[in-house]
Design brief:
Blueprint: H1 2-21, H2 27-38, E1 46-50, H3 56-65, E2 70-75, E3 85-89, H4 95-104, E4 109-114, H5 124-145, E5 146-157, H6 162-170, E6 173-179, E7 190-198
Parallel strand pairs: 1-2, 1-4, 2-3, 4-5
Antiparallel strand pairs: 5-7, 6-7
Helix pairs in contact: 2-3
The structure holds S-adenosylmethionine.
């Protein structure tokens, strides 16, 4: 009972702060706290934010990379326009979304962010599995669109597939840390995975290609399960 009360107070505190400071979501404070601690952004960086609606992380990214930086946000839902930020409506699991990204974003990003969350089914292991699936799509975007030595910050719901996902991520980044910022709810199962030093050791193109009929099993047949 007391735990729930504390959680609601915590939720309300960041909710009110976001309203007062004109941030679009409480989640802004999570990214600020992550950046203060792990030094994710540099001025002039290019950032791709996956699952960016309503735009709280986009605001923080834009503030921290400054006018010389580029920020692109992608979401299934339309993001209200924001000065100096390009937004894309699309599903990150679809090729068409990656094609749209190539149209608005030349070159590769310094930072990929993912606060993507599945539609919660209320079934713990199913929500966990879908969250891990989205994490692997975020990693897939890194393989295609992140600069060597770039950074990834992504949300994951904890569960039994978490360690295997981390193992996969560790094959691609020099440093991988798991962190829960103070602005995350105490009782929440969400964690943030902070990855630095992208190795760029997968030879993949930005857009997933359909394999030729006789080329079964190539790396580009990915649809759905990426683990
Ligand atoms: C917690 S919200 C993100 C909040 C955001 N970081 C902010 O600060 O405003 C998670 C978002 O992930 C998006 N999402 C979930 N699956 C997605 C997918 N396959 N492709 C793109 N966006 C997705 C949802 O539509 C939702 O808006």
């Amino acid at each position: 009972m007391r735990e729930r009360w504390l959680e609601e107070r915590h939720h309300e505190h960041y909710y009110k702060l976001a309203k007062k400071l004109d941030y679009r979501s409480r989640a802004s404070f999570k990214l600020m706290q992550i950046d203060d601690r792990f030094k994710i952004f540099r001025e002039g960086d290019s950032v791709v934010d996956l699952g960016a609606c309503p735009g709280g992380w986009l605001q923080v990214a834009k503030e921290r990379v400054g006018d010389g930086g580029r920020v692109v946000g992608i979401d299934l839902r339309r993001i209200r326009p924001m000065d100096g930020v390009v937004t894309i409506v699309g599903d990150i699991t679809e090729d068409s979304t990656l094609i749209k990204l190539t149209e608005v974003f030349e070159g590769k990003a310094d930072v990929v962010l993912s606060d993507m969350a599945p539609n919660m089914a209320g079934h713990y292991s199913m929500d966990h599995a879908r969250s891990i699936d989205l994490c692997m799509y975020a990693v897939d975007v890194c393989d295609r669109a992140l600069k060597k030595e770039g950074k990834l910050v992504m949300k994951a719901f904890m569960g039994d597939m978490f360690e295997d996902m981390l193992k996969e991520v560790r094959t691609r980044f020099r440093s991988v840390k798991v962190h829960s910022p103070a602005a995350s709810r105490e009782a929440s199962s969400e964690m943030y995975v902070i990855c630095k030093g992208f190795l760029a050791n997968r030879n993949v193109r930005l857009v997933r290609e359909e394999p030729a009929a006789d080329a079964a099993g190539t790396e580009f047949t990915i649809k759905g399960n990426l683990i």
